[in-house]
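Subject: sequence -> structure tokens, single chain

Hey, anyone have a minute? Need the predicted structure for the following. Not urgent.
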Amino acid sequence: MKQGDDEAAIRALEDRFAAAVNAGDVNAIIENYIQDKSLVVFDLVPRKEYHGADTYREDWVDFYTHYKGLPKFSIINLNVTVEGNLAFSYSFAHITGTDAQGHAVDRTVRVTVGYRKINGNWLKVLEHISMPVDLKTGKAEFNTKP
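Reply:
Had a minute. Here:
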């Protein structure tokens, strides 16, 4: 597979991931990740650090309990770099919806992902989600847009 084909495959993976998030389909979300204990995810919410697909699956199940209905999720400015059987991407994820208390949610986070090509298929093996922090206040900047 040529590098352009690999990049297209990773973009397709991220499209499937976004569609699964929008559908509230946790099984389809987790299919995009390596299915063993080698997966590492640094997330915004407590527990904050996840090792293994089973543990991270629990985070996604919990994610949906914080919303009334399904939130809307989109990936913005996806940049992909491929080198052999390894790749990485960086982008922004935009989430809107209504939280469980009835308040509007409009949040943009930064996302960095590491991928490995295993048996011809690209999978997420490392993910890091973050928000900018105002160093004066020590508080996250929830409304920063790309």
